[in-house]
Each structure stands twice: as structure tokens, then as C-alpha cells.
Amino acid sequence: MKKNLLNVHPDVIKLGIVSFLTDVSSEAIFSVFSIFFTVVAGASAALLGVVEGLADFSASSLDYLAGWLADRSGKNKPLTLLGYLFSTLAKTTLLVANSVTALVIFRVIERLGKSFRGPPRDAWLSAVAEKSSRGYAFGVHKALDKSGAILGPLLAYYVLNRFGQNLRAFHILFIGAVIAAALAVIVLAFMKDHPTQAPKRENIFKAWGTLSNSFKLFLIPAGIFSLAYFSFGFLLLRAYTIGFSIKDVVLLYALFNVAFVIVAVPVGKLGDFIGRKSIIILEYLIYIIMCLGFVFTTQKWEVIVLFILFGVFYSIDEAQSKAFIADIEKDRRATAIGMYNFTTGLVYLPASAIAGALWVLHPTYAFGFAAIITFIAMGAFIFLQPKISDKNF
Questions:
Q1: Per-residue pLDDT, 224
Q2: How far apart are CA 158 and CA 235, in angstroms?
Q3: Is the dihedral of CA 36, 41, 47, 50 positive or negative?
Q4: Which domain holds residue 147?
Q5: pTM exceeds cut of 0.85
Q6: Which residue, 247, 21, 304, is CA-closest to 150?
Q7: The domain spanning residue 213 has which CATH number?
Q8: Which of 43, 106, 130, 348 is deepest in the core (most CB within 10 A)?
């Protein structure tokens, strides 16, 4: 297959463009959602925690099913396309949503599309990426993905700055988001599928038993860490409480994504060079430092540094964890990625609810709790390392 200037399979670039357009849409919305939900719509931070936990669970609730279906059929495009289309249709509800209840329904329902498209898309990427440069390929895709997440918040900032921080401005922003999401679906619709060889068919319940022991062991620290992985909305709220305006908070969100894009490819190459195990330990360390930083920060410049640090962490978590799973689970990657997303998403539900409850007591409690849980997860991963096979690295 002829490659390109980035030296990756063309499908990596095309899927990156689809993710770019989708993130322009999604992040334009989500960069303002937590503030809009609490400040404009009048909901409480505790309710935000519950809603974000539900949204995180929704974003992974169908992953195992989608991964199993993709592996069972050997076809990734139909499920990927269906997931992107569902999210696009859900976003159109924002054009008429005008209450807290409607916003809650949108936030949870829209994430179902993400849940359904994730495993087959990541399996698609794994299938076309060479094993020796898989981390790099995932890094390229995520760099394109998060480039859209830079433009989305900047679009939100422009609209709010141009039309004011009012309902009319949000309505204009939501229209632009729907258009970008629709374009992503059109691009994907014209792509050719890259079928994989379907393994022996098992029913969805027996599929778990076919996954490798290494993958199952990895789920232990991953599940523990998920309890510390509360919604990004709380970081935005923390910045708001320290003194950033709503539109400036949107710029912080864009800054976070800039950091993600800048380090995504170098981190992918680093993972290929030193091994994904080391890069995952680094991920935990960065998250601990970031959480402790939000406990003690009082200055705006400190918040800026922490958002950059979070971008570095997120670039590792989003791309390299999937590359790691692709390394240790060769035959049923979509099923494994789906189970990983489902398991971590299941824990995200209480994680965000706990963060919301701790936030009501004091915002720093939420970050302190996350730092402690992450330290435990890192210890579990280090302890289990010798039992997690790296023969495919």
C-alpha cells in the first residue's frame, strides 16, 4: 500500500480527518458545556458530576458489543459509520434543547455514538498500522483528532466573543457544530472498508474467555485508575473558580488540545522505542503531578501550566493505551478495546459522582482523591508488569 509524507497507511490519515471534523464539532460543544450547564442553565456541580459520570459510562457502554460485532464480522466500517452518524443526529437536539433536563439527555445520548464507533475504528487503525510503528500511527491519528479539538474551542471562543455569552450565541455555536459533524460522516461514507479476518465465531458472553491473560491483568490497574479519572469539566470549573472568565476557560481547553497535538507523535515514537509499559507508568506519574497541582494552585499561570500537563497526559492515555492493547491482544483487538472501554467507562460513573460530591465539600478534595487512587493504580501496574506479556512489542 502506497504511503504518504507521514509514512503511514492512507486510512490513518483519512480516519484522522474524520476524527478532526468530529472533534471540531464535539469540542466546540464540550468546551463550554460544564460552564453552560452550571452557570447559564443553573444546574449544580453535584448534578454535573452525576451527568458527566453517566456520559462517560454512556461513551463506553456499547464498546464491548461493538468490538465483538466488528471481530465477528471482520468489517469495521459499517459500525464505525453508524457510531459517527448517531452522534451527529444527537447533536441536532441541541438546536431545540433549552432546559437542564434536555441538556442531560443530550449529554448522555450523544456519547452512545462514541461508544459504538470507538472499538471498530481503533481495530481498523491497528489492522493497517505496522507493528513496529503502531504507536506512531496511533499518535498521528490522535494528533489529527485533537487538531480538531483545538479548532473547536477556538470556534466557541470566537462565537462567544462576537455575539456575547447568551443563548443566541450558543445556538449559533451549536449549528456550526452540527455542520462539522455531518461533514465527518460524509468523508467516512466515501472510504473503503479494510476488512480483517474474522476469528472463530463465539457468542458475546464466551468472547471474554478468548481474550489473553495479559489483557485481563492489564484491566486491573486500568480499572483502579478509572476511579481517579473524573470528568474534564471539573478542570474547567476549577479554572473558572480561580478567576478565568467563561470565554477564557474555552481558550484553556484549546491550550490543552494544543499540548496534546504537539506531543502525540513524539510520545508515540517514544512508546515504540522504550516500550508501552514504561510509557503507561509515565502516564500515571503525570496524572498524579497534575492532580496535586490543582490541589495547591492559586495563580492563573499555574493553571495554564497544569492544562498543558494534562494535554501531555491525555495524549498518552488516548493513543498509547490502545496501542498497548493491540500489542498484547493480536487476534481480537476490537473485542479487547471494547472490553477495556466498557470496564473503564463503568468505573467512570462513580468516579465523576464521587468527584462531584467531594467538589461540594471543597474542590481540592476531588483532586487529592484522584492523586491517591492513581498512585494505587500505578503500584498495581508495576506489580503486575512481569505477568503481562510483551512478546509482541
A1: 93
A2: 21
A3: negative
A4: 11-190+207-387
A5: no
A6: 21
A7: 1.20.1250.20
A8: 348
